[in-house]
Amino acid sequence: MRQIPVLILLTVLSATHAFAQSPLDHVWRTATKSRSNPTAATLGYDKIRAGLKEALKASTGKAVASTGRRDGFLKNEAIKILLPEKLRTAGKGMRLLGMGSQLDELEVGMNRAAEQATPLAKQVFLNALLKMNIDDARNILTGGDNAATEYFRRQSLGELTTAFKPIVHQAMQRVGVIKQYNQLMQNSVAASLLPGQGLDLDNYVVGKTLDGLFYVLGQEEKQIRKDPAARSTALLREVFGTRP
Asked: From CA 176, how far away is CA 105, in angstroms rounded?
Protein backbone atom coordinates (compact mmCIF):
# COMPACT_ATOMS: atom_id res chain seq x y z
CA MET A 1 0.00 0.00 0.00
CA ARG A 2 1.36 3.44 -0.92
CA GLN A 3 2.25 5.36 2.21
CA ILE A 4 0.37 8.63 2.80
CA PRO A 5 2.70 11.65 3.23
CA VAL A 6 3.11 12.55 6.88
CA LEU A 7 2.17 16.21 6.30
CA ILE A 8 -1.20 15.25 4.77
CA LEU A 9 -1.96 12.86 7.61
CA LEU A 10 -1.11 15.53 10.20
CA THR A 11 -3.41 18.01 8.47
CA VAL A 12 -6.32 15.56 8.38
CA LEU A 13 -5.95 14.48 11.99
CA SER A 14 -5.56 18.05 13.22
CA ALA A 15 -8.85 18.94 11.55
CA THR A 16 -10.66 16.27 13.52
CA HIS A 17 -9.65 17.84 16.86
CA ALA A 18 -9.30 14.29 18.17
CA PHE A 19 -5.62 13.91 17.44
CA ALA A 20 -4.45 13.77 21.04
CA GLN A 21 -7.53 12.83 23.03
CA SER A 22 -6.95 9.13 23.71
CA PRO A 23 -4.01 6.91 24.68
CA LEU A 24 -4.84 4.87 21.59
CA ASP A 25 -3.97 7.88 19.46
CA HIS A 26 -0.27 7.19 20.01
CA VAL A 27 -0.61 4.22 17.66
CA TRP A 28 -1.61 6.53 14.84
CA ARG A 29 0.86 9.21 15.86
CA THR A 30 3.60 6.59 15.85
CA ALA A 31 3.70 6.94 12.07
CA THR A 32 4.12 10.73 12.22
CA LYS A 33 7.06 11.12 14.60
CA SER A 34 9.92 10.77 12.14
CA ARG A 35 12.12 13.36 13.85
CA SER A 36 11.77 12.17 17.44
CA ASN A 37 11.44 8.51 16.55
CA PRO A 38 12.63 7.50 13.07
CA THR A 39 11.98 3.82 13.73
CA ALA A 40 8.33 4.49 14.51
CA ALA A 41 7.88 6.40 11.29
CA THR A 42 8.90 3.33 9.31
CA LEU A 43 6.15 1.14 10.75
CA GLY A 44 3.69 2.05 8.02
CA TYR A 45 -0.07 2.07 8.10
CA ASP A 46 -0.49 -1.62 7.28
CA LYS A 47 1.51 -2.54 10.36
CA ILE A 48 -0.39 -0.04 12.51
CA ARG A 49 -3.67 -1.51 11.31
CA ALA A 50 -2.35 -4.99 11.99
CA GLY A 51 -1.41 -3.94 15.52
CA LEU A 52 -4.86 -2.49 16.10
CA LYS A 53 -6.44 -5.69 14.80
CA GLU A 54 -4.39 -7.72 17.26
CA ALA A 55 -5.49 -5.49 20.12
CA LEU A 56 -9.15 -5.75 19.10
CA LYS A 57 -8.83 -9.49 18.54
CA ALA A 58 -7.61 -9.79 22.11
CA SER A 59 -10.38 -7.61 23.51
CA THR A 60 -13.17 -9.37 21.62
CA GLY A 61 -11.71 -12.70 22.69
CA LYS A 62 -11.87 -11.62 26.34
CA ALA A 63 -15.45 -10.38 25.94
CA VAL A 64 -16.55 -13.68 24.39
CA ALA A 65 -14.66 -15.73 26.98
CA SER A 66 -16.13 -13.87 29.95
CA THR A 67 -19.72 -14.08 28.69
CA GLY A 68 -19.61 -17.48 26.97
CA ARG A 69 -18.97 -19.51 30.10
CA ARG A 70 -21.14 -20.83 32.89
CA ASP A 71 -22.51 -17.90 34.92
CA GLY A 72 -21.01 -15.44 32.42
CA PHE A 73 -24.45 -13.84 32.18
CA LEU A 74 -26.21 -15.17 35.25
CA LYS A 75 -23.64 -13.93 37.79
CA ASN A 76 -22.87 -10.64 36.04
CA GLU A 77 -25.44 -8.17 37.33
CA ALA A 78 -24.64 -5.72 34.55
CA ILE A 79 -25.79 -8.10 31.80
CA LYS A 80 -27.90 -10.74 33.57
CA ILE A 81 -31.02 -11.48 31.52
CA LEU A 82 -34.06 -10.79 33.65
CA LEU A 83 -37.55 -12.03 33.01
CA PRO A 84 -39.46 -9.93 30.47
CA GLU A 85 -40.81 -6.79 32.12
CA LYS A 86 -44.50 -7.75 32.04
CA LEU A 87 -43.69 -11.16 33.46
CA ARG A 88 -41.58 -9.57 36.20
CA THR A 89 -44.51 -7.32 37.11
CA ALA A 90 -46.95 -10.20 37.23
CA GLY A 91 -44.31 -12.29 38.97
CA LYS A 92 -44.82 -10.45 42.23
CA GLY A 93 -48.29 -11.90 42.54
CA MET A 94 -47.22 -15.25 41.13
CA ARG A 95 -44.53 -15.62 43.78
CA LEU A 96 -47.10 -14.98 46.49
CA LEU A 97 -49.04 -17.90 45.05
CA GLY A 98 -46.07 -20.27 45.24
CA MET A 99 -44.82 -19.98 41.65
CA GLY A 100 -41.45 -18.40 42.49
CA SER A 101 -39.38 -21.47 41.69
CA GLN A 102 -40.85 -21.68 38.18
CA LEU A 103 -39.98 -18.06 37.53
CA ASP A 104 -36.45 -18.54 38.87
CA GLU A 105 -35.88 -21.61 36.69
CA LEU A 106 -37.08 -19.71 33.65
CA GLU A 107 -34.66 -16.85 34.34
CA VAL A 108 -31.72 -19.19 34.89
CA GLY A 109 -32.52 -21.04 31.68
CA MET A 110 -32.54 -17.86 29.59
CA ASN A 111 -29.09 -16.93 30.91
CA ARG A 112 -27.77 -20.42 30.24
CA ALA A 113 -28.97 -20.13 26.64
CA ALA A 114 -27.14 -16.80 26.27
CA GLU A 115 -23.95 -18.31 27.67
CA GLN A 116 -24.11 -21.16 25.19
CA ALA A 117 -24.71 -18.89 22.20
CA THR A 118 -22.05 -16.27 22.87
CA PRO A 119 -18.97 -18.32 21.82
CA LEU A 120 -20.24 -18.08 18.22
CA ALA A 121 -19.40 -14.38 18.32
CA LYS A 122 -15.67 -15.07 18.23
CA GLN A 123 -15.58 -15.98 14.53
CA VAL A 124 -18.07 -13.25 13.63
CA PHE A 125 -15.82 -10.64 15.26
CA LEU A 126 -12.81 -12.05 13.42
CA ASN A 127 -14.74 -11.68 10.16
CA ALA A 128 -15.42 -8.03 11.03
CA LEU A 129 -11.71 -7.46 11.62
CA LEU A 130 -10.92 -8.82 8.17
CA LYS A 131 -13.12 -6.09 6.70
CA MET A 132 -11.31 -3.29 8.53
CA ASN A 133 -9.64 -0.74 6.28
CA ILE A 134 -7.37 2.23 6.97
CA ASP A 135 -10.28 4.64 7.45
CA ASP A 136 -11.92 2.25 9.92
CA ALA A 137 -8.66 1.98 11.85
CA ARG A 138 -8.19 5.74 12.00
CA ASN A 139 -11.80 6.29 13.12
CA ILE A 140 -11.39 3.73 15.89
CA LEU A 141 -8.06 5.09 17.06
CA THR A 142 -9.14 8.73 17.12
CA GLY A 143 -12.82 8.18 17.90
CA GLY A 144 -14.79 8.15 21.11
CA ASP A 145 -14.57 5.66 23.94
CA ASN A 146 -16.91 3.23 22.15
CA ALA A 147 -15.68 3.67 18.57
CA ALA A 148 -14.44 0.07 18.27
CA THR A 149 -17.59 -1.34 19.87
CA GLU A 150 -19.75 0.62 17.45
CA TYR A 151 -17.62 -0.62 14.55
CA PHE A 152 -18.28 -4.21 15.59
CA ARG A 153 -21.96 -3.47 16.08
CA ARG A 154 -22.26 -2.06 12.55
CA GLN A 155 -20.25 -4.83 10.96
CA SER A 156 -21.55 -7.84 12.87
CA LEU A 157 -24.99 -7.23 14.39
CA GLY A 158 -26.92 -8.89 11.55
CA GLU A 159 -24.55 -11.85 11.33
CA LEU A 160 -24.60 -12.32 15.11
CA THR A 161 -28.40 -12.22 15.23
CA THR A 162 -28.63 -14.85 12.49
CA ALA A 163 -26.01 -17.05 14.17
CA PHE A 164 -27.45 -16.73 17.66
CA LYS A 165 -31.11 -17.50 16.90
CA PRO A 166 -30.86 -21.25 16.28
CA ILE A 167 -28.33 -21.73 19.08
CA VAL A 168 -30.49 -19.83 21.57
CA HIS A 169 -33.56 -21.79 20.49
CA GLN A 170 -31.76 -25.13 20.80
CA ALA A 171 -30.20 -24.15 24.11
CA MET A 172 -33.55 -23.07 25.55
CA GLN A 173 -35.08 -26.34 24.45
CA ARG A 174 -32.17 -28.26 25.96
CA VAL A 175 -32.33 -26.52 29.34
CA GLY A 176 -36.13 -26.58 29.31
CA VAL A 177 -36.87 -22.87 29.02
CA ILE A 178 -39.53 -23.19 26.34
CA LYS A 179 -41.25 -26.03 28.19
CA GLN A 180 -41.09 -24.07 31.44
CA TYR A 181 -42.51 -20.96 29.81
CA ASN A 182 -45.33 -22.85 28.10
CA GLN A 183 -46.23 -24.60 31.34
CA LEU A 184 -46.15 -21.30 33.15
CA MET A 185 -48.46 -19.68 30.62
CA GLN A 186 -50.85 -22.63 30.77
CA ASN A 187 -51.22 -22.17 34.49
CA SER A 188 -54.59 -20.63 35.25
CA VAL A 189 -53.05 -18.18 37.72
CA ALA A 190 -50.45 -16.98 35.23
CA ALA A 191 -53.12 -16.74 32.52
CA SER A 192 -55.22 -14.50 34.73
CA LEU A 193 -52.26 -12.25 35.50
CA LEU A 194 -51.00 -12.15 31.92
CA PRO A 195 -54.03 -12.31 29.65
CA GLY A 196 -53.05 -12.57 26.01
CA GLN A 197 -49.39 -11.73 26.67
CA GLY A 198 -47.68 -13.88 24.09
CA LEU A 199 -43.90 -13.49 23.91
CA ASP A 200 -41.28 -14.57 21.40
CA LEU A 201 -38.71 -15.83 23.87
CA ASP A 202 -36.16 -16.53 21.13
CA ASN A 203 -36.07 -12.91 20.00
CA TYR A 204 -36.12 -11.64 23.57
CA VAL A 205 -33.14 -13.75 24.67
CA VAL A 206 -31.18 -13.10 21.45
CA GLY A 207 -31.65 -9.35 21.88
CA LYS A 208 -30.59 -9.42 25.53
CA THR A 209 -27.61 -11.65 24.70
CA LEU A 210 -26.39 -9.16 22.11
CA ASP A 211 -26.93 -6.25 24.50
CA GLY A 212 -24.84 -8.02 27.12
CA LEU A 213 -22.08 -9.00 24.72
CA PHE A 214 -21.68 -5.47 23.35
CA TYR A 215 -21.77 -4.05 26.87
CA VAL A 216 -18.85 -6.26 27.92
CA LEU A 217 -17.03 -5.48 24.68
CA GLY A 218 -17.45 -1.78 25.45
CA GLN A 219 -15.88 -2.33 28.87
CA GLU A 220 -12.93 -4.09 27.23
CA GLU A 221 -12.53 -1.18 24.83
CA LYS A 222 -12.40 1.28 27.72
CA GLN A 223 -9.64 -0.82 29.23
CA ILE A 224 -7.65 -0.70 26.00
CA ARG A 225 -7.98 3.07 25.87
CA LYS A 226 -6.88 3.44 29.48
CA ASP A 227 -4.01 1.00 29.23
CA PRO A 228 -2.99 -0.20 25.75
CA ALA A 229 -0.30 -2.40 27.29
CA ALA A 230 -1.80 -5.82 26.62
CA ARG A 231 1.26 -6.41 24.45
CA SER A 232 1.37 -10.16 24.30
CA THR A 233 2.97 -10.35 20.85
CA ALA A 234 6.01 -8.81 19.18
CA LEU A 235 3.79 -6.83 16.80
CA LEU A 236 1.79 -5.29 19.64
CA ARG A 237 4.99 -4.37 21.46
CA GLU A 238 6.36 -2.79 18.30
CA VAL A 239 3.24 -0.83 17.43
CA PHE A 240 2.21 0.13 20.95
CA GLY A 241 5.71 0.44 22.31
CA THR A 242 6.22 4.13 21.59
CA ARG A 243 4.59 6.49 24.03
CA PRO A 244 3.56 9.93 22.83
From this structure: 9
Q: Which domain holds residue 66?
A: 6-240
The pLDDT tens digits for 158-206 are: 999 999 999 999 888 887 777 777 776 676 666 565 555 556 888 999 9
- Could you tell me if residue 1 is inside a domain? no
Query: Taking the CB of residue 183, how many other CB atoms lie within 10 A of it?
Result: 13
Give a yes or no: residue 49 inside a domain. yes
The answer to whether 30 and 243 have CB atoms below 8 angstroms apart is no
C-alpha distances out from residue 18 to 22, 24, 30, 45, Å = 8, 11, 15, 18
The answer to whether residue 32 sits within a structural domain is yes
Residue 191 lies in a domain: yes
Tell whether the torsion through CA atoms of 40, 44, 49 and 50 is positive or negative. negative
